[in-house]
Specification:
With about 150 residues, the protein is of the alpha/beta class. It has five helices and six strands. The protein has one domain: RbsD-like domain (RbsD-like fold), CATH 3.40.1650.10. The protein is globular and about 45 Å long.
Length: about 150
């Protein structure tokens, strides 16, 4: 155990998050996401039994969000929904991003198939146990100023 580290952050997950550089993306996806197929050989860390919100919250305790990007957080938009519609799981991540200092406008809704394309650029996929549909988000890594 390490002091001050969220216990949900496994050694494997910490290793991959730490190895990522500025501008790289991590995807936190739901239980139904085709993670192995879309990862294209990139690491997939599984945290079954945990919600999108819980895993995202843990990741954001150690993962700085990019300040030089207009929208360092993205989520999969619900198909054929009214503009601005978000699921409760998506809203929980938006709230986490705002708590990290982002404005709501810095969280991007990405059309489903465009999200699949975007996720191909992710360096790491973290598959949660989230059971609700469209429970998929991406975070872009920033820098920590010393």
């Amino acid at each position: 155990m390490l002091k001050g580290i969220d216990p949900l952050l496994t050694p494997e997950l910490l290793m991959h998050l730490s190895a990522m550089g500025h501008g790289e993306w991590v995807a936190v996806v739901d239980a139904n996401f085709t993670a192995d197929y879309l990862s294209q050989g990139k690491p997939v860390v599984r945290l079954p039994g945990h919600s999108l919100e819980r895993v995202s919250k843990a990741v954001l305790t150690v993962f700085p969000l990019a300040a030089d990007l207009a929208q360092p957080v993205a989520f999969m938009q619900v198909c054929q929904s009214a503009e601005g519609h978000v699921t409760p799981a998506q809203q929980s991540v938006i709230d986490l991003a705002v708590a990290e200092g982002l404005k709501r406008s810095q969280v991007e809704a990405v059309e489903r198939f465009a999200f699949y394309d975007k996720i191909k650029s992710a360096s790491l996929l973290v598959q949660t146990g989230e059971g609700s549909a469209y429970g998929n988000v991406m975070f872009c890594k920033g820098v920590i100023q010393f």
